[in-house]
Amino acid sequence: MKSPLVLLVIAACGSAAPPAPLQQRAQPPPEPPVLHAAPGSEAAAPVAPSPSSSSSSSTSASALPPIDLQPPALQPRGQVTVTTSDECGMMFDTVYFTERSVTLRPASIQVIDATAQMLVCLDQHGEHLRLLITGHTDAREPDPLGLSDQRAQAVVAALVSRGVPAERLTPQGEGASVPRDARNTARARARNRRVEFVVTSRDP
């Protein structure tokens, strides 16, 4: 006869459930991947952005346009269509003067030459432009109306001496009433001592 202890062991072995598998240590969740911007894209996607930081990051990622501290160049006024501008060019630059005088700056002589060549070329192609030549002064120059008119007259005379018909050029002094640069600096005043070209009409 078997002992009770042996029977108890046999019964336990026969009825015991299979041992439970060993529990593994919990692994932390994987970190979200870092996304990088492809070449040429504007910005990289941030890692797990918060609602408050997503808008600021997208704003800072966009490149801001550069700030131009210089005043924009004025374009010649007028609504005249010129059909032969490709052959002759159609570019009116500004003529500048030395302070308190009607003396052209050296660079402005080249502007007069180029303008006269363009107008003569347009004449040869049947494009007869009429121009208003407006003279201007800076705010510190004496007799602004008289000086600005003399500057306009000087440009007209220079164009006529280069073959442009005088009857299509009208000088007009504007004084200091139409500044190109309103800042109170030496450079701004130099920009205001000028003559500009205004295309008023085209004769057939």
Can you tell me about this structure?
It is a single chain. The protein is an alpha+beta fold. The protein is built from 6 helices and 4 strands. It has helices spanning 4-15, 51-61, 85-88, 106-124, 144-160, 186-192; strands at 95-96, 128-135, 169-173, 194-203. The chain has a 4-stranded mixed β-sheet with strand order 1-4-2-3. α4 packs across α5 (144-160).
Keywords:
single chain; 204 residues; alpha+beta; four-stranded mixed sheet; 6 helices; 4 strands
The overall pLDDT average reads: 72
Count of separate DSSP helical elements: 6
Give the uncertain stretches in residue-range form: 1-17, 33-83
Along the chain, the helix and strand elements come as HHHEHEHEHE
How would you sum up the global shape?
A: elongated
Structural class: alpha+beta
Which SSEs are present, and which pair or pack?
Elements: H1 4-15, H2 51-61, H3 85-88, E1 95-96, H4 106-124, E2 128-135, H5 144-160, E3 169-173, H6 186-192, E4 194-203
Parallel strand pairs: 2-3
Antiparallel strand pairs: 1-4, 2-4
Helix pairs in contact: 4-5
Could you write a compact summary of the structure shown?
The chain has 204 residues and is an alpha+beta fold.
